[in-house]
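TL;DR need C-alpha cells for one chain.
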Amino acid sequence: MKLNLSFFASRTITWYMARLFVVRSFAVLAGLAIILMALDLLGETGDILAVPGNGDAQLWYYVSLRLPQIVSRFLPFSVLLGTLITLATMNQNSEIISMKAAGISAHQILAPLIVASFGIAALSFWFNDHVVARATNVLSAWQDVDYGPIPQSHGVVGNVWVRAGEDLIHAAQVTGKGPTTVLHQVTYYDRTGDRLTAVVSGARAVPASGGWRMDNVRIFDVSAGKVTGRPAISFAQGVAADRFTLAEVRPDGMSFKALSRAIGDLRAAGRPTVALDTVLWHKISGALSAVLMPLLASVAGFGLARSGALFIRAVIGMALGFTYFVADNFALAMGNIGAYPPLLAAWAPFLLFLLIGEAVLIRTEE
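>> reply
TL;DR here they are.
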C-alpha cells in the first residue's frame, strides 16, 4: 500500500471535513449564545427596567451589547465541541477507519480542521477587535451608571503623574486636550541621578514651544534649603500633552492597535504596563486558541467505535480542551498581577497544550 504524503488527503475529503467542522462549530455556538443570552437577560432585566424611561428598546440594546461578548468568550468552546461532534460521528460511521485503511494519516485527517480553525481564529480576532471591544466599552459605561443615561465625558483627569526622563511631574487636575491642555496645581520634581535637586510648583502650566510653561513659580532648592520665586519657567521639553490626559485604560474595551498605543504612552509616562502587555498579547493567543481545539479533541476521532471506548475518548478530548482554558485563565491572572512575564502568561499555555496535543496524537495514532 502506497502512503499519501501530501498535506491534504484529497480535495473531496478536505472540503467535506472542513464543511462539517465549520457548520457544526457555528451551530454549537449559536445554541450556546441563545441559551446563555437568555439566562443573562433574565438576570439583568430587573435592573434595566428599574430605571425610569427604560423599556423594550433598552432590553434589545443590552442584547446587542452583551451578545458579542458571549459569542467571543464561547467561540473556542464551540470549536472544541464542534470538533468532538464531527470526529466522533465520523468514527461512529466508520469514516475514519476507511480513511486510515486508504493510507491517510491522522495528521492528514486533521489537516482540513486545523486549516479551517485558522480561518475561524482570524475571524475571531477581527470580531473581537472591531465589534466586541466597542460593545464592551459602551456596556461598561452604561453599567457604571446602573443602566441610566450615559453622561458625556467631562474631559477632566485628576491626580496625574508623568515621568520626563529622570524628573517627575504631578498635576492635581488636567483639563482640555492636545494644544489646549492645562495642568492645574503642578509640582515638578527636578532630579539628577538618584538625587532630588529642586521642587518647582505653580498653579497652572500650559504647552509652549515643545514643552511646558509654568507661571507664578515657587522653586525650592533642596541643597540650599531656600525658596525663590519666578514669573515663569519652561520645563519638560518633548513631553506630549496626551501623556497627561491618559485616564483609566480598560483593555477589554480597546482594539489591539488602540491598546498598543495606550501602552506606549503609559510606558513613556513611566507607568507600569505589565498587566496591559499581558492582555495585549492574549488578544492574539486567545484568538489562536481555536487552532488548538481540533488537535486536543482529535482523541475522540480515532480508535475503534465498537470497542465501547468512544464516549471515554470524547470525554478525554473535552477534558484536555477545558484544562487548556483553566491553564490559560490561570496564566492570564498571574500575568495581570505581575507574577509571570507578559509573553509567558499569554503564550505558555498555548505552546504547552500544542505540544501535549501533538504528543498524544503521535503516541496513539502515528
